[in-house]
Amino acid sequence: MELICPAGNLPSLKAAVDNGADAVYIGFQDDTNARHFAGLNFNNKRAAEGVAYAHARGARVFVAINTYPQVIGFERWKQAVDRSAQLQVDALILADIGLLDYASERWPDLRLHLSVQASATNPASLRFYHENFAIQRAVLPRVLSVKQVEQVIKDSPVDIEVFGFGSLCVMVEGRCLLSSYVTGQSPNTFGACSPGSAVRWKETPRGLESRLNGVLIDRYGDGENAGYPTLCKGRFQVQDKTGYAIEEPTSLNTLSLLPELMRIGVSALKVEGRQRSPTYVKQVTRVLRAAIDAAKHDPANFTPNAEWMGALQKVSEGTQSTLGAYARPWQ
Amino acid sequence: MPGHGNDMSAVPKIALGPILYYWSKQQTEEFYQQVANTGVDIVYLGETVCSKRRIMRSKDWYRIGKRLQAQGKTVILSTLTLLEAASELSALKRLCTESPFLIEANDIAAVQILNELGKPFVTGPSVNIYNSRTLQKLVDKGLRRWTLPVELSATELAEFQQHRPDNVETEVFAWGRMPLAYSARCFTARAENLQKDDCQFRCLDYPDGLLLSTREDEVFLCINGIQTQSARTVNLLGEIDRFIDLGVDVLRISPQFHNTMDIIDRFTEVLSEPQSPKRFDTQLESWMPATACNGYWNGDAGMEQY
């Protein structure tokens, strides 16, 4: 099982490679990728440096071009594919059918992975992308239980990559429009969820309030830790109750599942977080490298050690973690 | 053909989308008996949200569909949007194989299965068609009509329509609470403090979904099992001239528990006389479970109202 780590800039890419990532995934500085944030991502020069750095050390580089090309501006996405091919990256991570069609036709030798943003959760969908565009791997949305992942792998025509650690999307990736409903910008159209430009913080007599385009996402009392107002992780009212009606601020952590994920035939484990710091990338890569190696060496006696769990906990969103949909009770 | 502007343009047909909520068998049967007497042209039937909702079996949908067909409606069978278990995929395959009606694919799995069977299909709003190359590729696979993703605007639709292949129709989600997200988690069960595996079919208690508000009582979202919808209702009937100019073929009305027949009647009335002064009166708004929105159509945040 390979370890795939995120990099939003060159220091993060180096941190991932130096700490044992098998591959690093990056994006360009525009809306062609799903972490379209100011000051983040790679221009051609930095990407070339990154590819050289990784290849010299036996690691691979994938480029995520995983937003949906808009009907006006498709050229920008084609150029991102062409740039990647010219940079001699090891794979593209794509979601859109039109863009997969372009990439497979224009660069038939370039390895294609299906992004989680394509929302493919079953073997029939995977067959569609495999038969039409010769994808070689797919990243599954974070909605399946371990047993369901196992069933998909059994009938899948391609390798399967799953999320192992990082911020948790509660909704099926590629099928969540909550962000554009509130702000006009979604992961599909713009490459961002709950974009920073729409966030406002205000101290009020009732507490610290976070708003997204005017909509109250959360209000914090004294002593409560305020988190980024990702809109599905706010506190809302349903009937007479106020609380985290959709999801708590929490991170996915699959450390305890590693031997199981290996046994069922998962090909690669992905770490979320291209928007996070080089320190995050270093910490998470280091721990997961050690844990995967330990689980490979002796799966029967594998237990996540306290040092690993502590290190991951420190960099978790809301400093708590969950097995997410891998475990039925979460659902 | 009733025309407007130029001879090439026709007035759109009206489609009634699948019921997105979970209603009792009696409520569902009565609903479709009423539908038969309306001016709706196309009726989508079937369960698209949750595979645990089994009050209506395939044979029930076939029976209702055949009756509606005999009454002059075009019937389409809608399929599940989020497929998680192998059993759900088998059920989808069976439906695609057996269905006496055209199928609405709501996941690429259905597209693939129908293509393997050599059957044509239409797509619902959850199949991501964001550009003309994607549309063309799916037309090559058997797509006959596609639905514009709800988050796209009139400007984007105009661009699509300019490059649209000849042999495919365009549908727009024109009335209803918009489906915005799908999850493995059931938010209705969560609100009731139940686990999904023991949900006790609480969706039956909320025939228009369960309202989620902000902590300052702003109506925000609508929980419908594993689906999250807008709490506000989109209403694009006022855009009828634009639809005709753009050559939109079908307008979709998404069922709600009350007044769906009144809404269909109002759409039928306006579409039958598109050049007469419109009555976009407050009555339509009074039939919404909450308030109105049309931001997406205007290139803005979906919740905004122009």
Description:
The complex is a heterodimer of chains A (331) and B (306). Chain A has 2 domains: 2-168 and 250-330, TIM Barrel; 178-243, no CATH class. Chain A contains 11 helices and 15 strands. Chain A has helices at residues 10-18, 44-56, 74-86, 97-106, 123-133, 146-155, 178-183, 187-190, 258-263, 278-297, 306-314; strands at residues 2-6, 23-26, 60-65, 91-94, 112-114, 137-139, 159-167, 199-204, 207-212, 215-220, 236-238, 241-243, 251-253, 268-271, 321-322. The longest helix of chain A is centred in the last third of the chain and has 20 residues, at 278-297. Chain B has 306 residues and is of the alpha/beta class. Chain B has one domain (3-177, 233-282): TIM Barrel (Alpha-Beta Barrel). Chain B has helices at 25-35, 58-70, 86-98, 108-117, 132-140, 154-162, 187-191, 240-246, 260-272, 282-286, and strands at residues 3-4, 6-10, 13-16, 42-45, 74-78, 102-105, 121-123, 143-147, 169-182, 210-213, 219-224, 227-235, 250-253, 292-293. An 8-stranded parallel barrel of chain B has the order 3-4-5-6-7-8-9-13, surrounded by 4 helices. A two-stranded antiparallel ribbon of chain B has the order 1-2. In chain B, α3 packs across α4 (108-117). The longest helix of chain B is centred in the N-terminal third of the chain and has 13 residues, at 58-70. Chain B starts with a strand and ends in a 13-residue tail after the last strand. The chains are: A alpha/beta (331), B alpha/beta (306).
In short:
The complex is a heterodimer of chains A (331) and B (306). Chain A is built from eleven helices and 15 strands.
